[in-house]
Give the backbone structure.
Amino acid sequence: MEFSMSADSQAKQMAVQMIEYLKSKILRDDNVEILLDTSLVASGMIDSFALIDILLQLEKVTQRKISPGKVSPRDMDTVTLMLITAERVGKPRP
Amino acid sequence: MPFLSPLPLVAIFLTWLAVRYTPARQARHAIVLLASGIFYYSVGGSFIVILALSIVFNFYWGDLLRRTSSTPLLFTGIAVNIGLLSTFKYLPQLAQPWANLSPTAAQIAALVLPVGISFWTFQGLSYLFDQYRGEELDPTLLEFAIYIAFAPTVLSGPISRLSELLPQLRSSERAGWSDLARGTQQMWVGIWMISLGRLLGSGVPAEGVTWAFDRSAGLGFFEVWLLLIGYGFQIFFDFAGYSRLVIGLAAGFAIQLQENFDRPFLSLTPTTFWQRWHMSLSFWIRDYLFMPLAMVRGDLWWRNGVLVLSMAVFGLWHQASWLFLLWGVYQGTLLVLHRFWQQFAKRRKLVVPDLLSWLLTYVVISLGWILFRSQDLPQARALLGAALNPWARATVSLPASFVWLVLLTAAGYFSWCWLSERLEGRSSLNWIPVEGRFSFYALTSYLVVFYRSSVESFIYFRF
């Protein structure tokens, strides 16, 4: 599945919201730099506990219900991957 | 050690030559699978039939899941795999108390564990999960059979993922002499580590960790802690060494396996420890058990409960016993307590010095070895009593050779870690000429293996 950040302003908006959330609620450090492709899980920046909060936030931001069994930590390694995952396995909320 | 007698070593080299000089990829795969099959048969005998059935079932079931992504099908697949594992691993243990009362129970209790079943069953399960999750995996039966039965990993892991192995199997590049040299070097390091683990187990001349555990009832506070440090290093060198050997063997065939250990005894928190110890199982539990269950509810109590449950499963993966269950629950509780502490420290802006953090982690992890290693609950209780009571006096003294062996091993290990961190980016022993390194590994391994007539078998084979 192709996912183009620049072409999709809605996706861009969602990415910004996710990055803000990661900085303020997960890492609690507004000065840390998170880009769309910054590795979060593999780099050890976030752990599996935080992943659950992130997934719940991802559901809110994307307005999609994401089945827990369908997501692996690898799918959540970067903000781009998170949004692709939500698109791939999430079901639109009614 | 199945890989290290002359016949398997010659067979490995012949297989390598055949793979090296066979141009067609399919033919290379067939050679690897045939060699793996012969290897498994030589160790596990007729259990190769169980392995083959597991391969065929998981392959076709995974294919079905890929096409349907059906939850009931996933659960059926899980049930079949867990059922197979339980039949051989857990039922005999459960039937043991009734073995004298019922012939059926006696037959069940006498069932032998197919070697490596805990490892390859988990690999099969991860494939089913990945297919259900919609990962782009389309192995052929031959590729999938290699993934499950690959000779280096089939006995004791590391537990691989098909997503990591498949691109390597499909690579057009063949194993070269440089791969063989790199792999052989890693194998030597592994053999050396295993030798050191065995030395700790059997002792010099004859009083090692095994000897001390057999006399644990008479040990005092200091003796128990020395024993726990010794056992921690024994199991680390034994399993991490075996993993290194296996990773080296696979590297010879140009297959890069997942690391299984990453200097775990330097961890500053229990959470970090579990990201560095038996990583392939730890990450398996995280990805396929903890994460899906934890995400069912957002509540903190649920998440903590699932964490403890996941670690309990981690413990039971080793064996169905109260001690392993307690060990898992203990590790899960440590992880939960660490989470609470992290949040508390963050709120209060507390900073714990690294040295204190390391010491606390090392102490609580070492304490857990009591549950991991004890034969029964009374032994664990006695050891815990002594470990937690600084005034506990010994009635059995540990020989000076054991004390020195443990202290020197610990000093050597931590010095090596300190040195390797300072030689950033460079492998710590690479500054020594290759001849020197190989001579050192060979000499020490020879001394340990041949000096001791009775050596313990690899600890993780029984799991």
Q: What stands out?
A: The mean pLDDT of chain B is 90.
